[in-house]
Every structure is written in structure tokens, then in C-alpha cells.
Amino acid sequence: MKKILLYISLIISTSVLLNSCTDDDRLRYKVEDFEKFFIPQVVLTESSATSFSPDNIATASITVKMDLTADEGEKLTFKPEVSTLELMVSYNGSEDFPLTTTSTWPFEHTVTTQDLATVIPEEYFGNDVEKLVAGDYFNFSMRITMKDGTIINGINDKKSYKIYDENGNPILDEDGNHVELEVPTYHIDLKNNESGNDNTDLTVFINCPESVKGDLAGTYTVTTSKAESTDPGAAEAGLSPVENWEYAGKITITHLGGGVYQFSEIFGGLYIRWYSKYTYTFETKGNYIDICGDIQGLGLKSAFRGDNVFAQGSVDANGVITIEWTNAFGDVATNIYTPVGK
Asked: CB burial class (10 A; 0-12, 13-18, 19+) of residue 263?
């Protein structure tokens, strides 16, 4: 499968029409009508905890900041204007429930576990925080209400528009059908400051006390026990499949707090091995969380457009981390991280 490097974030999609439509399904194809995406952000403040621990679950809290920025962090004058931001929360993949609403931003809000017990219906954990267990998680997101009454829910809401030229004439395809363009209405990018990655949501876990101490931080060697690329060129070059291959570089794992770790290279060198012909000659950082010895990837992705990476693993009594991952192209691998000098 052809792989294309994504050097700029999702905002490279450049422009979304916010205010020039004369009706709901008309999009005039004029450059001057377009605006940049705005980026609503739901972030943990730098001083906030990044997970809840069962040993103080009754009094635990986090501080969440909601804000709206442009693609370079600058402020925008929005068209149409935003009326309110609403902080939403879900529990273990449930529907979203409202926590608080603001009409000014940036806006910081401290969320206690007791607040969560109040807004999440009784059917989930009985409104009793003592019933929360390690591995449970809360997802925080933002719901936006515009002054024209439009409600923006979820990530990358999209709508189809019929395309007209600047004279108002329909643009037709080769079969004579009216061309439609599907565009994001607003780009919603939820960021976790502690991770440094763009994530589709902000997730806070219930974690074990021993998992938040940062014991996994350090320097590691990484060996791939088995892996296979779906790119024909990798196989033709004798670079795939892979068995018991050790990456020449060392991996640094940094504790970001709350059991969240940043890996200096999440592919064990495999992307460099397989895809250097596509100029993928650099290491790829990414974040994992240790939840009571279970390792889960957090918003992992490569520099290839649309290449989300799904990963999970475990850590043994000797601190050896084993992670299995697959990507959007169907590549699969098992990486084994062995601590150096421990």
C-alpha cells in the first residue's frame, strides 16, 4: 500500500467553509470564502494528576482546561461565533454526560471523583466511587454550541455540500451528476499536555498505586521477535517478514506522570527498516500507559497520513516490556523492550 508522509497536522486539510453558504447544502467554490479550522482543546493542566489511584479514590481530582485556538496557537475571530463550550465525560465507553458549561475561555475546571459519581448515572457504578476499580476509565470531550444554534458533537463532524462555481452554476461529474464534497464542519482536536500527542480524546484511568511510580523509566534495547510489513517493497528487499531482529539504537522511556510513559521510538526501528525508501528515516515518539502491569497505547500514530497504530502489551517481574502492535495498513509486530543496567 502506498504510504504518504504527513509533515503537517490534520490542519493541512487547510480550509473549511464556515459562513458563506446561502443554504444548508450549498458550498460556493471561492477561495476567499474559506477559513482555517479552529481547534477546540480539552487538556489537563500541567499541574494536574494524569490518573486516579484507588488508594485515594474518594478525594481524587484532576484539573481540565478548555480552550479554542487556531492552527498555530493564535486566537481566531470565529464565523459563526461560538456561544458555549460544554465539558462532557463518558465512563468505560458509555455515552457522554455533561459536566459543566462555560461561555468564556480559556476555562479551567477541577473535576473530582465525587463530581463524576454525581453526573454518571447510577446504573454504571452506583454513584459510589469506592466501586471504581483499576482499568476503569473516563473520557473527556467538548461539546460546542454556536450562536446560530448549531451543536458540534464528537470528533471531526462532517457534512456533504453540493459544489457550485463562483457564478452559482452546479459543478457536474463526467456522468452529469452534481458533485458533492464532504468536509469537516469543525476540526476538534483534544490534546493531553502530559503526553504531548494529539489524541482523539482525553482519557483518565483508574490506576494501581504501584503503576504510577515511574519504575519503567529508563534506557532499553528493543528486539522484534516477529513482524511483517504489508508493503511489497519490504518483502522484495528481504526486509520482511522479521524474526528476532535487534534494533541498533537504544530506546528511552520517560515517565510523564500517572503511569503515562513516552517511548522515544514506538516501532522498534521497523519503520526505518521497512520504509526508509519513503524517507521514513527517523524514530517515532509515542505514549503508553501502565495500568497495573497492562500496557496500552495512547493515540499512537506514525508520520504516514491516516496511519493510526493500535498497541497493547505487558511488563514482567524483571521489567521487560512486551508490546504487540498493528497499524492502519495491516503491518503487525511484537517488540520486546529489555531494560539496560537494571
From this structure: buried
Cα 291 to chain centroid, rounded: 18
| Other residues' Cβ atoms within 10 Å of the Cβ of residue 188 | 24
What are the b/e assignments for 30-66, b being 16+ CB within 10 Å?
eeeebbbbbbbbbbbeeebbbbbbbeebeebebebbb
Residues 215, 185 contacting (CB under 8 angstroms): no
How many Å apart are CA 4 and CA 328, to the nearest integer?
13
Determine the Cα–Cα distance for residues 114 and 119; give it in Å rounded to an integer: 9
Nearest to 196 by CA among 141, 271, 250, 256: 256
Please state whether 102 falls in left (phi above 0), alpha (psi between -120 and 50) or beta. Answer: beta
Which numeric CATH code is attached to 211-339? 2.40.128
Q: What is the DSSP string of 299-324?
A: S-B-SBTT-BEEEEEEE-TT--EEEE
CATH topology of domain 10-206: Immunoglobulin-like (2.60.40)
pTM above 0.85, yes or no: no
Domain boundaries along the sequence of the chain: 10-206, 211-339
Q: How do 51-52 and 202-206 pair as beta strands? A: parallel
Residue that has been written with the C-alpha cell 508520520 in this structure: 303
pLDDT, tens digit (0-9, with 9 covering 90-100), for 228-269: 999 999 999 999 999 999 999 999 999 987 788 999 999 999
